[in-house]
Write a structure and sequence with these properties.
Blueprint lengths: L1 H25 L33 E7 L8 E4 L5 E4 L3 E4 L5 H12 L8 E5 L4 E6 L5 E4 L4 E2 H7 L12 E4 L5 E4 L1 H6 L6 E2 L4 E4 L5
Parallel strand pairs: 6-12
Antiparallel strand pairs: 1-2, 1-5, 3-4, 6-7, 8-11, 9-10, 9-12
Length: 209
């Protein structure tokens, strides 16, 4: 009798053990195999993706091609969520995190000389602007076409008027910061000719005698 009880206990223990193992393994969620051939998009080392001069996801780009024997259709579209655009011949390019000049060079280098002997690429982000107000000859909204400095931005607005105070030019940055620049000093030393970014507002004050 005693041996029968011990045998029953052993059988019950074995059944409980097997059931526990099956329950545990049955609850495991199978993991999908890694994607083959997938390479995540990585910005170039040292890239400041928050820099206003760099292109961002969702920005509208207009890209034209010239100096080729057969015309290439103009590209117009927004940078996708993965940071890329697809151009002629199904070529993909990472646009987010690049400057306009960097993207132009990368596109040209991809096509020349592999597909074309010569190619001129022009990239525009038509929704990017900066503003020049105050004592300039043509106060206006200016399209941001690429890297430009304070003196270049003022020149694009026609230059200073005869009543301008060039030593106290204010720059209202898109992030809310304010800078005061002496343009006379910047003309003498280019280190003080600061860059202008999309969304910046330049205000040239009037001088008083």
């Amino acid at each position: 009798m005693k041996r029968t009880v011990l045998l029953l206990r052993a059988m019950v223990g074995f059944v409980l053990f097997v059931g526990g193992v099956l329950l545990f393994t049955g609850c495991q969620v199978p993991q999908p195999p890694p994607l083959s051939g997938y390479t995540p998009t990585v910005a170039p080392a040292g890239t400041n993706l928050l820099s206003p001069s760099r292109l961002r996801v969702g920005e509208l780009l207009v890209i034209t091609f010239a100096d080729v024997p057969t015309p290439i259709p103009q590209y117009e579209g927004r940078i996708r969520e993965d940071g890329k655009i697809t151009l002629t011949m199904n070529q993909e390019f990472v646009a987010a995190g690049r400057t306009v000049a960097e993207l132009e060079k990368e596109i040209r280098d991809r096509y020349v000389p592999k597909y074309f002997q010569n190619l001129t690429v022009t990239v525009r982000a038509p929704e990017r602007f900066f503003y020049v107000d105050g004592q300039v000859r043509l106060p206006s909204r200016q399209q941001y076409l690429g890297e430009i400095t304070l003196l270049g931005a003022i020149a694009a607005a026609g230059g200073f008027t005869d009543f301008a105070q060039p030593k106290k030019v204010r720059i209202l940055r898109a992030d809310g910061k304010v800078e005061v620049v002496d343009c006379k000093r910047a003309q003498r030393d280019s280190r003080f000719d600061v860059p202008i970014y999309p969304g910046d507002r330049i205000i040239v004050p009037r001088r008083f005698w």
